[in-house]
Design brief:
This protein is an alpha/beta fold and about 350 residues long. It has 3 domains: about 5-50, 434 Repressor (Amino-terminal Domain); about 60-170 and about 300-325, 3-Layer(aba) Sandwich (Rossmann fold); about 170-300, Rossmann fold, CATH 3.40.50. It has 12 helices and 12 strands. The protein has helices spanning about 5-15, 15-25, 30-45, 50-60, 75-90, 105-115, 135-145, 170-180, 200-215, 230-240, 255-265, 300-315; strands at about 65-70, 95-100, 120-125, 150-155, 165, 190, 225, 250, 275-280, 295-300, 325, 330. Strand 3, helix 7 (about 135-145) and strand 4 (about 150-155) form a beta-alpha-beta unit. Helix 8 (about 170-180) packs parallel to helix 9.
């Protein structure tokens, strides 16, 4: 059977091409009997509108892209899940771009997405989490944003004017630190995250501030930065436990690092939380899949994704959404923290 076109449907139903287009795209009222006649022919030939042709006509593709740094980190799929559900309700489909933490891949995807003419981009991690984004990487995003709306999630490019959706990570780290202090801990450490990222630095800043409020300090030997991964958390916790003086509690940059820290602590023969308390960050699905279950800080991952899509949709419909939407974190207390008995 030859491919049927909108012109064939118009000819067979004895109506104009414009009328068929109105039915297919639902852009204007069409008499019920005429609509029914057209739909019968569409079903008869199982007609599928040409998406490319439609995008050229409407200058829209109905697609949103998400760029994220690590698909294996459960936090990012949670954000994507929230975004995808919101996008489906609004009629969008998704391109998912995993950069593996490489800025060169980010650049490749930005170029590809421009060629694909996506309607909007949601950007997580990578260059937007650097405390000082290199000018070339910064400018690349700014230039594309002149053509395609870009929403940043949990990241920032200062003075860019781009829309941001983010959780107050400093407030989350302060909540976690206060929780440990309330449990009687005075020797508190920090693990994970690259030192040149705002994700790590904002949490370290909050921990130091909260400790100062209680006339405590963050021992520099108990502040270990590195990777965001499970392996990184395990390695950094091992380094901390190899010291003659150990903290009684540790806050980790994310749940991945926290689970690595738990593995290391168990390997050193420590009981959790009797000998050491461990707190994660993100409240990812992994936090309840480990024993003991992880005390952590929820970043409202799904809501971040939903709000990013909502913001893009408002921009695409020529509305004027807020430039910044801030979500408040929540402390989720489970079994990995307990009162210090020392």
């Amino acid at each position: 059977m030859k491919d049927i076109t909108i012109y064939d449907i118009a000819r067979e139903t004895n109506v104009s091409v414009a009328t068929v287009s109105r039915v297919i795209n639902d852009t204007a009222p069409v008499k019920a009997s005429t609509r029914e006649k057209i739909m019968k022919v569409i079903e008869k030939y199982q007609f599928q509108p040409n998406a490319l042709a439609r995008s050229l006509l409407k200058k829209e593709t109905g697609t949103i892209a998400m760029i994220l740094p690590d698909i294996t980190n459960p936090f990012f799929p949670e954000v994507f899940w929230g975004a995808e559900n919101a996008a489906r309700e609004k009629g969008y489909t998704f391109f998912l771009c995993n950069t593996a933490g490489e800025y060169s891949r980010e650049s490749e995807y930005l170029s590809i997405l421009r060629e694909k003419r996506v309607d909007g981009i949601i950007f997580l991690g990578g260059r937007i989490n650097l405390t000082h984004c290199p000018p070339a990487l910064y400018q690349e995003v700014i230039e594309l944003a002149k053509l395609v709306p870009i929403v940043l999630v949990n990241g920032h490019l200062p003075k860019s004017g781009l829309h941001r959706i983010y959780t107050d990570e400093e407030a989350g780290a302060a909540l976690a630190t206060q929780h440990l202090i309330d449990l009687g801990h005075r020797d508190i450490g920090f693990i994970g995250g690259m030192a040149n990222t705002s994700t790590a630095q904002s949490k370290i800043k909050a921990v130091k501030k909260k400790l100062r409020e209680h006339e405590l300090t963050l021992n520099k030997d108990w502040m270990k930065t590195g990777e965001f991964s499970l392996q990184g958390g395990r390695k950094l916790m091992s380094e901390m436990l190899d010291q003659s003086q150990r903290p009684t509690a540790v806050l980790c940059v994310n749940d991945f690092a926290a689970i690595g820290a738990i593995k290391a602590a168990l390997e050193y023969g420590l009981r959790i939380p009797e000998d050491i308390s461990i707190v994660g960050f993100d409240d990812s699905p992994l936090s309840t899949a480990v024993i003991p279950e992880l005390t952590t800080v929820s970043q409202n991952a799904k809501e971040l994704g939903e709000l990013a899509v909502e913001t893009l949709n408002l921009i695409l419909n020529h509305k004027n959404p807020k430039k910044q939407t801030i979500l408040q974190p929540r402390l989720v207390v489970r079994s990995s923290t307990g009162k210090w008995q020392g």
